Amino acid sequence: MTAILGISAFYHDSAAAMVVDGRIVAAAQEERFTRQKHDWGFPTNAIQYCLQEAGLEPAELDYVGFYDKPLLKFERLLETYLAYAPSGFRSFLRAMPLWLKQKLHLTRLMDRGLQRAYKKRFVFPEHHESHAASAFYPSPFDEAAILTVDGVGEWATASYGVGRGNTISLSRELHFPHSLGLLYSAFTYYTGFVVNSGEYKLMGLAPYGEPRYVDLILEHLIDLKDDGSFRMDMSYFNYCQGLTMTSPKFHRLFGGPPHSQTAPPTQREMDIAASIQRVTEEILLRMTRHVHAETGLSKLCLAGGVALNCVANGRILREGPFEDIWIQPAAGDAGGALGAALLIWHQLLGMPRAPQPGDSQFGSLLGPAYDDAEIRRFLDEQEVDYTRIDDEQTLCERVAQWIADGKVVGWFQGRMEFGPRALGSRSLLGDSRSPTMQSLMNLKVKFRESFRPFAPVVLREHATEYFDTQPAAESPYMLLVAPVREERRRPLDDASLRARGLDKLRIARSDIPAVTHVDYSARIQTADAERHGLYHQLLTRFHQSTGCPVLINTSFNLGWAPIVCTPRDAFGTFMSCDIDVLCLGRYTIEKRRQPAAIRVEEADQPEAVLRHLWRSPCCNAELAVKEAEIVCEHCGRSYAVDQGIPLLFASHEGCDRNGDVTGLVKSFYEREPFPNYDGHDTLRSLINKSRRGVYARLLNEAIPYNSTVLDIGCGTGQLANFLGIACRRVIGADLSVNALRLAERFRREHGLARVRFVQMNLFRPCFRPASFDVVLCNGVLHHTADPFAGFETIARLVKPGGHIVIGLYNRYGRLVSNARRLVFRLTGGRGKWLDPRLRAGRLDAGQSRAWFADQYHHPHESKHTIGEVQRWFRSSAFDFVRGVPDVRADDEPLEESGLFDPTPPGSWLDHALVQARHAVVGNRDGGFFIMIGRRKARAAPAHAE
């Protein structure tokens, strides 16, 4: 037995692949295990999985291959910096530490990653050799032309050659800096998407535009030859010497700076996307024609990141000279790990190769699988309400019916896919016939841009009934785009024909509108019984019951996360968005049966979330909804409802007398609601902003699903709306109706059915005691006349075993802010640059004004210490959990543990040192600190003997 491990790392998608006696045994990307999208670090977890799947220890490996030559790549890096010196010095300084620490010591890193047990040879093929091997060796062809196109390897950015039998030979290369991959990435950057992850967004945006800039690109940016080779005018680009992709000259040519990543695309970005897509297709068509002429072969194999451009692939198949093409499903750098292993087996060791019908990549289902026993164990640990369906036919009938009823189904079966596409093992499935499903899945399931298309999966034997494909053509890996057949298209009226840009989204264009892009194209996957098993059965059952053999198939992940790997990943994703049903093996879980679920017909009724929680703030009695008011059933007092917001504010005894400041604070926030929402905010932008803040992200991870959460002092409701995206019931309460209106408007616009907002006085809460799993009160208590009394009041709302999170001004951390306040008062508000947040320039005008008012013109604030708040906890039967920042001098990084994981309370000396540090460096947030406590669980009743 000969066991070969292939590794790719340190650029885009790290991965590992295992080949045993020439058979592909396992392959997986590191991101699936670490949950960091496009994880480029050393693939420790992927290697461990591959070894486990093969039943091997590191010492039993015969060869280990790495997918490129790091020293040759380092040579290119140094030569490039020298050629552009001194202008590339900042980029050079940024790149060198990683090279000096990791990439130049790769053998040492691999040795450590293999537990120092592997004592044999490391092999380093060139980057494009690995791509070529990944393309040819698993293909069904005995001989074929090979074309590889990507950003850059060592020096090569594209190559072509021939594969015959067990050998490959590359004959020509295009060299850096002239690169089709980097050209496309430059436009990705310029149109406001993230390089190395947003290229497929650029491709999806292209059909909404017109290719107005094609001539501009060909005249100024590249000199394109008939054979597909080209030279780029590097004065328009900055990637050789800088930290951006494009130069000021590029920006002048296209009429402005790069588009903001946070703003939606305009018609200009759509036209630019259409133009570079058209140029890319033309380059690839010229390349393939030249390769065909040079090799004289009828079959073509493709790999490299550019081979994931499925629109171009479709044109190559339809318009190019080759009879058949095969594309590596993991065409990017991840596939290089597989190519390196196969290259060693066939090329280095000279072992024979027998092409398999279809291919030898087993549907690219090469990742981990989880049996029903493992799934059930997980579900029982999580106390999930599930149904087991043992019979496959019954399971498929049930799931097909859910899909036909308009449900989104998470489908988790068998081995995980290798490569960027979900192919029926880790998929989200929906009804392709629905005119609203594309928008629903983009905005409320994937949380991604509305223009992004979804791919269809179609029964292979029915593919030609819906798509213009060759009768024998297969597309099991979703790497080809084909037009929807004319007879399936719907005629458009004049208004529809005049639609431009994203207005095209609202037009149903075919019998399967959810998977028909605005140019009548579709990125198809064909399903067959041999490769796809249960997935094929499900599709067959859907066809039998509806007459349609086409479903939506998209990857089972949220927009910022990798495809799910484990049952835990799948369940977490299911609970974090609006997937209706999760099918894990033979187990099904329905969202409607979750404790936090809200019926569709109650989505906008305030009482749907509040009815089991609220009570009258005036006399603690039950509340009832009567017409447009909420009425106390004891005293008859009525409370108005303003735009869906119950106004349950009741003054407490002594309000606005004896030094109470509730009325002053209420008036202040009515005048100065913090304008946290942008005009183009979406759920995705809210999620992105919240996840950028470590605290909000960790809070979301710490609060269990199906919890009931109260956010007191929610303001405009960003945190409440963010936490309510997942399957929780979240209530935001505030004094300011103006702020709550902004919160409620966003909630309604984005259909957050489990979130509600109420106006409330925290000294007269409108909720039953012990109703909430988590109570949040950030930045509120220090604006009351009696913070401790306020704490005691809200603490009673927490369930036994539940958590309270309070944010206050620290007495010492506030010293610098107090000094600034004095300066601003003496100078009439001049010198605002003294405030770190205002100086950073990240707030817009409205946010800057509100921040300045809140920090320096608030009518009342108090300051507190760590020890003081810990005494509050003890007096109200709460255990201290943690502080943010940590309350100990030897604090550990916040992200190394869960936010609700208990930590030591620290000594008085710890507190003194930490608060001294607050006074010096903790002034960016005005000396704000957070304390978390957990209410003691009720003691079990004693039993008589």
Give a verbal description of the structure.
- The chain has 945 residues and is α/β, with parallel strands linked by helices.
- It has 5 domains: 3-134 and 335-352, ATPase, nucleotide binding domain (Nucleotidyltransferase, domain 5); 173-327, ATPase, nucleotide binding domain (Nucleotidyltransferase, domain 5), CATH 3.30.420.40; 372-593, Carbamoyltransferase, C-terminal domain (DHBP synthase), CATH 3.90.870; 652-811 and 860-935, Rossmann fold; 815-859, no CATH class.
- It is 35% helix and 18% strand.
- The protein contains 32 helices and 32 strands.
- The strands form 6 sheets. A 9-stranded mixed β-sheet has the order 13-21-20-14-15-19-16-18-17, sandwiched between helices. Strands 28-27-26-29-30-32-31 form a 7-stranded mixed β-sheet, with helices on both faces. A 5-stranded mixed β-sheet has the order 3-2-1-4-5.
- Strand 6 and strand 7 (156-164) form a beta hairpin.
- The radius of gyration is 30 Å and the shape is globular.
